[in-house]
Amino acid sequence: MGRIILANDGIAANAKLELEKLGFIVDTTHYDGEELEAKIKEVECIIIRSATKIRKDLIDIAVGGNLKLMIRAGVGLDNIDVKYAESKGFIVRNTPAASSRAVAELAIGHMFSLTRHIYISNINMRNGEWNKKAYKGIELGGKTLGLIGFGRISREVASRAMALGMDVIYFDVFGESSIMPECKYVEFDELLGNSDFISLHIPYIKEVGTVLGDAEFAKMKDGVYLVDTARGKVVSEEALLKALASGKVAAAALDVYEEEPTRNEAIYTHPKISLTPHIGAATSEAQNRIGIETINIVKEILL
Fold it and tell me: 3-98+283-302 and 100-275 share one CATH topology?
């Protein structure tokens, strides 16, 4: 049958070609349910993005088959039960560096979209409306950006924000970082109370749960702008809607949602929310870098 790699959520064409040159059969069909359960026993490696979930039941089915390696083509590993998979002898990897710039640029883009009303004025103009006086904005320069989490993506956001003249503060559960000392480490509540903009760059951890709920929104500045390009469940959508209604949050930008695709009509029709459909890593350059990282992981583990 040959050595099979299943790219269940797709893979860049150049990466597929390189893996084939290494002697692998690369299956880019998307399987769900029983089909995936049957297929995962046959393949030596499975590569997923955000759509496929590898939970305990699927891991148990894979035990005893050909599967050795699981690769998350992206940063977040929350759609794989990593500890359980590793306890069963599987190797789990991700590609943490490849999409950092792409996600950071989307986060900054959303900040511009919110403050200059690009997202909503574009819609209204297509409906024949000329609401020039309604779209008075603010500038990013001179404002304070609070970053929740200070990993690779967050630091890419920080560098771009500082180039725009923003002051950057951050909180991270691992404490103060020696990287980018020009950014100031603060405690979580201080970040909430002193930020004009808040951008999240943390994983969703089930045991921790929601990071921004009613209590956290209450501690924020009035008129804060919120950007979430991390994971939808770290922000309570219900709490966000209340904060938007009260004016505590001036506007929000979301690339991720509690449920994907989102079915929360109050979120996707809200006039003060700029939306994108989880496209943080969706650039040609990022996908090429993800492909390169994936190939290197396969070489390291399987060859």
Answer: yes
